[in-house]
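Task card 7
Instruction: Convert sequence to structure tokens.
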Amino acid sequence: MCFRAYTQMLELKVRRCCELNNEQQLSAILFIGKSCDSDHYVIVVIISDILSSSYTATYDQESWEALRKEGEFSTDEEFIAELANEKNSLNMERSEYVQMKWIRPDEDGLTFEFCTLTLKLDTTWMYHIVNALLKERNIYYDNAIREEAVVASMERRLELLGNKVEEMDDYRRNLSNTLISKFVAIQNGKVSS
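Output:
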């Protein structure tokens, strides 16, 4: 799902929380999105630090594919699924740049690094990320409201159906009683003649 943000369209692929590996224990949120306008991938880290809070890296299709193949993934879907997988640890270090390292365990319990990204101090994509998140939130709430309306409509229909069933049951009982009465009257008429 792409969202219009200024002149860019951004499809968010990955959202992860992590902590900066330093003495301050700052929290961070990582976003990976794909620009629908240019097939560039955008990686943004927002750190809970007032002085320098947003770091960004962009990859064109060719450099993204090289990064993906370096991690030995054949498709973007596999690669993105591994980047989003919470079982894989995400280490983040900051100096002049922010370096993100994804580490996953293998079958023997050993760990290996499968992706490293370097991000520069840059706030230009923060608006696009926040805009995409707000639009996702609005779509979620619109869908929730729509689903509530559908459920309410179904409940009303179910109630009407229940009323119809009661009416049919009353009609069946009345018909049954009428038929029995007529049958008894006919039998009584035959017995007396």
